[in-house]
Task: structure prediction
Amino acid sequence: MIIGMAIMIKDFKNGGTDRARKNMVVMISKIVQRLKQYMNTGRRMVSQMSNKVETK
Result:
């Protein structure tokens, strides 16, 4: 993923073809989705842990 970003940034600096720009947008949206998933799972884990603490 990081290598892909580096290649796309290089393409972008070279004037960036339309394809490179589209790929860049797709990559960024995928990364954002991944981050959102991590945030949601993290929240879920925290809430489960706090629930366990309360039940004791």
